[in-house]
Amino acid sequence: MIGPMVLRFANRLADARARDALIAANPALQARELAKRNAVETLVGEHLACRMGVDVGADVRPLLWAKVGMSCFFVGYQIWLNSGGDLGAHIAAARAALPAEFGRSEPVIAPSR
């Protein structure tokens, strides 16, 4: 399934790379981008809480899933910026990696001592 965020960016790789470079070079734009991401996470969390019939301030699941979903999007988006290809497939790969990574008996990176 291709979502609206994928459709918004999918055919605009050069524009997205230019935007990303501009943000990376400007601390004020970095702060604005982070604030926008946080606002979207909050809205998604509130929407999920409503759908789940729970209080977003008392149940960890809506905000947790909002953050997980946004993280999958932005991991796929970063891979797409770096290597091109199919944005939707990169996001799907991030989602698919979650169960495998959380199901590991050993951490990928050993804890530091």
Low-pLDDT ranges: none
Tally of DSSP β-strands: 0
Q: What is the percentage of strand-forming residues? A: under 5%
N to C succession of SSEs: HHHHH
Mean pLDDT: 89
Rg over CA atoms: 16 Å
Helix-strand category: mainly alpha
Sketch the major β-sheet: none
* Residue share in helix: over 70%
- How widely separated are the two ends? 43 Å
Figure out the total of helices: 5
Could you say which overall geometry the principal axes of the C-alpha atoms support? globular
List the helices and strands and how they pair.
Elements: H1 4-9, H2 13-24, H3 27-52, H4 60-83, H5 87-102
Helix pairs in contact: 3-4, 4-5
Sum up the structure in keywords.
about 110 residues, mainly alpha, 5 helices, about 75% helix, globular
Account of the protein in words:
This protein is mainly alpha-helical and 113 residues long. It has 5 helices and no strands. It is globular. The chain starts with a helix and ends in an 11-residue tail after the last helix.
Short description:
This protein has helices at 4-9, 13-24, 27-52, 60-83, 87-102. By secondary structure, it is mainly alpha-helical.
